[in-house]
């Protein structure tokens, strides 16, 4: 059996968005108050403007960190552990209720499709006090796969 050779594919922003759109598992990295990294496993989507979106709560570390320091990174993973992945860096923002309602609807749609009762979904988001984190891609690495060096 021949070994898997690692790859690094440089992509445009449009190609990045196309790569990320069907992938919903990621690790979000924000900065703690002491300057250290905070890693959070998240479910993500891509909105109509090409931003990576994550549902959260205002009291979560990721939300507090982004309010203090809007720099964030997300490592978007494939469903299979050894599949291709990419790191995306950029400024992030947090939207809270009520401005988060329609963006949360869009978030649900890009991940799970249509909800059977959108009014019920909106009420649940308000009751839960949900927030939405949006990361605007400014820099990204190549789409990578693990494996052996080509030597």
Percentage of β-strand residues: 35-45%
Order of helices and strands: EHEEEHEEHHEEE
- What is the number of helices? 4
- Radius of gyration equals 17 Å
What does it look like?
- The protein contains 4 helices and 9 strands, in the order βαβββαββααβββ.
- The strands form 2 sheets. The chain has a 6-stranded antiparallel beta barrel. It has a two-stranded antiparallel ribbon with strand order 1-9.
- The model has no long low-confidence stretch (mean pLDDT 96).
- The protein has helices at 13-20, 61-68, 101-112, 118-128, and strands at residues 7-9, 25-31, 37-46, 52-56, 71-77, 86-96, 131-135, 139-140, 143-145.
- Helix 3 (101-112) packs across helix 4.
- Helices cover 26% and strands 35% of the residues.
- It is globular.
- The chain has 151 residues and is an alpha+beta fold.
Give the topology:
Blueprint: E1 7-9, H1 13-20, E2 25-31, E3 37-46, E4 52-56, H2 61-68, E5 71-77, E6 86-96, H3 101-112, H4 118-128, E7 131-135, E8 139-140, E9 143-145
Antiparallel strand pairs: 1-9, 2-3, 2-5, 3-4, 4-7, 5-6, 6-7, 6-8
Helix pairs in contact: 3-4
């Amino acid at each position: 059996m021949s070994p898997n050779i690692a790859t690094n594919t440089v992509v445009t922003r449009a190609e990045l968005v196309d790569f990320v759109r069907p992938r919903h598992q990621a690790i979000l990295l924000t900065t703690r108050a002491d300057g250290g990294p905070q890693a959070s496993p998240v479910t993500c989507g891509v909105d109509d403007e090409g931003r990576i979106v994550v549902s959260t709560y205002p009291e979560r570390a990721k939300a507090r960190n982004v309010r203090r320091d809007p720099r964030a990174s997300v490592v978007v993973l494939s469903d299979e552990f050894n599949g291709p992945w990419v790191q995306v860096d950029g400024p992030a923002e947090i939207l809270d209720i009520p401005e988060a309602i329609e963006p949360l609807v869009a978030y649900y749609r890009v991940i799970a499709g249509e909800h059977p009762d959108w009014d019920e979904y909106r009420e649940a988001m308000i009751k839960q006090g949900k927030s939405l984190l949006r990361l605007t891609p400014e820099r990204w690495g190549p789409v990578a796969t693990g494996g052996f060096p080509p030597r």
